[in-house]
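Record minuted for everyone:
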Amino acid sequence: MKYNFTAEQIADPQMGPATQAVRSCVHCGFCTATCPTYVLLGDERDSPRGRIVLMKDMLEKGGAPTDEQVYHIDRCLSCLNCKTACPSSVNYQRLVDQARAHIQEHYKRPLGERLLRWTIAKVMTRPALVRIGLLLTRIGAPVVKIIPGKLGAMARIGLSARPQGPEPTNFPKPTQTLKRIAIMPGCVQGALSPQIDAAVGRVLARRGIELVALEGAGCCGALPHHMGREHDSQVFAKRAITAYEQGRYDGVLITATGCSSQLKDYAQQFAGDPVWEPRARKFAAAAYDFAELCTPLTVTPPQPLRVAYHPACSLQNSLKLNGVGEAMLEAAGFIVTPFNESHLCCGSAGTYSILQPDLSSQLRARKLGNIAAAEADVLVSGNIGCLQHLAGGEGLTQPILHLAELLDWAEGGPRPANLELPAQPH
């Protein structure tokens, strides 16, 4: 693609990868069929190819973006499904990340939008504040259900929350410890579903992995990063890196795939920083996703359920761990039932379900319709955002669990509280 980036932009550690993405694009359009928003809307400006043109023009010109540019870039899910179809290996992630940071710095949004984004960055990244929000949501449930727009979308997250017990700080010790892994508490998951990390601890202990709570770390920074708030995101990243450097571990884990992909990308966030880039690179190299640590274990579950497995976009397109979840479920004695369009985003996408509630709801309805056709007994995923988003959909007929919760039950752990078993196995 023709471009007019300056030599300084091309050489910049942050901007350079974005300019390379533009220069690599041959405008073939193979990406359009894999883009959820283009599949829904059929608008070229809501396809990766169209957005690349908008982002190129915006970044070349510099300064304040146009309303049209912001509108269509905002509607990108950052699912990175486009990368799977691109014959030119365009690194779309680097381009859209840089575009969002540019918009955050140079575009003045309406006051209500600014307040909403500030709330996401400052409240949803802190579990104590999320818990207060959950309490208020439950108290005001009848009102929350009818709040319109983006504020309503954020408030309704709490309606499908299923916290069971306190957030774990101590984890079971294996009979023989093969690895000692620091586990980050994260932010939203610790408040909404603390039972996930508890199940992860039991599952990994059976595999000789001891988890140790990483004190001093909190949110991974993914939520502010999705909105282009790079300073806020870097603050959380620095906190996690510093906390990890204080101990001696064999790696670091966070149990949501979206957060795992964020940890593994820390080095790029600090590209060009002589102090933090090497520290971030070392941290990223030590980062694990649950699916990388949880080797398949052959067992006989209490009941051989039919499982619809929803692989999060972060698992498929960032972590490149396709097929790993299915292999673990099959080894555990479950019947994995495929469904149509499993590769398309469910509409959660970090902050997307709040900031783009209409498109997000359409994608969720499409996803749940395909899952319903598979006639599974339970729906499983490995990302808290997907779990909460899908749980809030009207078309969901099955219980929904994190992968670790179902594996833990199959391997002798407690039955998840919301796992309603069918009367007769298939």
User: Anything to note?
Assistant: The CA atoms of residues 390 and 405 lie 17 Å apart.
